[in-house]
């Protein structure tokens, strides 16, 4: 794949979605989980989305059950949890693996474009965030403990 826009992913309802629909948008791509110590970050992600969506921000949530089995539910249960617990309105996608042989092609691409500490491509935990500019370049990778509001400035520079 030459560009992030070449990928197609399944949304939380299982419908294929081409990432080219987010061309000319700033994307924050996050692997999420419902039963994680970082789960309250949904609140911060939604606040960022509400504040900056009209200016071109898209937040893409990808549930993942690879870290401590903290996302055990079905896509329907995950969608209900996100809506009822955090009022999530940003796009959510089908559950994926982010590491290993079954890692989603999108996540293989993100990790290759922006490796983590000491060049490691592995995602260390839930709520790792990748910031993508309007041209589809992976600009930054943020650790799980980085709160959404602390990266608002980086996002605003790209809008």
Describe this structure in words.
The protein has a four-stranded mixed β-sheet, covered by helices on one side. The protein is built from four helices and six strands. Strand 1 (8-10) and strand 2 (16-18) form a beta hairpin. The protein is 25% helix and 18% strand. The protein has helices spanning 41-52, 75-86, 105-113, 152-158; strands at 8-10, 16-18, 26-32, 57-63, 129-132, 138-142. The chain is of the alpha+beta class. It has one domain (25-63, 70-158): Glutaredoxin (3-Layer(aba) Sandwich). The radius of gyration is 14 Å and the shape is globular.
Write the layout of secondary structure elements.
Layout: E1 8-10, E2 16-18, E3 26-32, H1 41-52, E4 57-63, H2 75-86, H3 105-113, E5 129-132, E6 138-142, H4 152-158
Parallel strand pairs: 3-4
Antiparallel strand pairs: 1-2, 3-5, 5-6
Number of domains: 1
- Which spans have pLDDT < 50 for at least 5 consecutive residues? none
CATH homologous superfamily designation: Glutaredoxin
Structural class category: alpha+beta
Question: In CATH terms, what is the architecture?
Answer: 3-Layer(aba) Sandwich
Please tell me how large the radius of gyration is: 14 Å
> Briefly, what CATH class?
Alpha Beta
Number of helices: 4
Order of helices and strands: EEEHEHHEEH
Strand adjacency order, main sheet: 4-3-5-6
Q: What is the overall pLDDT average? A: 95
What is the number of strand segments?
A: 6
What is the rounded distance between the termini?
25 Å
Beta-strand percentage range:
15-25%
Q: Considering DSSP H and I runs of 4 or more, what fraction of the residues is helical?
A: 25-40%
């Amino acid at each position: 794949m030459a560009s992030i826009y070449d990928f197609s992913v399944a949304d939380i309802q299982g419908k294929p979605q081409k990432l080219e629909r987010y061309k000319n948008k700033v994307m924050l791509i996050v692997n999420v989980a419902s039963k994680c110590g970082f789960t309250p970050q949904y609140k911060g992600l939604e606040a960022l989305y509400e504040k900056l969506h009209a200016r071109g921000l898209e937040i893409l949530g990808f549930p993942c059950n690879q870290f401590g089995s903290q996302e055990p539910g079905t896509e329907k249960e995950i969608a209900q949890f996100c809506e009822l617990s955090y009022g999530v309105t940003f796009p959510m996608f089908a559950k994926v693996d982010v590491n290993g042989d079954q890692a989603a092609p999108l996540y293989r691409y993100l990790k290759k474009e922006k490796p983590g500490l000491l060049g490691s491509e592995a995602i260390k935990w839930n709520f790792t965030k990748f910031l993508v500019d309007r041209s589809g370049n992976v600009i930054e990778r943020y650790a799980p403990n980085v709160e959404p509001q602390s990266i608002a400035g980086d996002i605003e520079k790209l809008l």
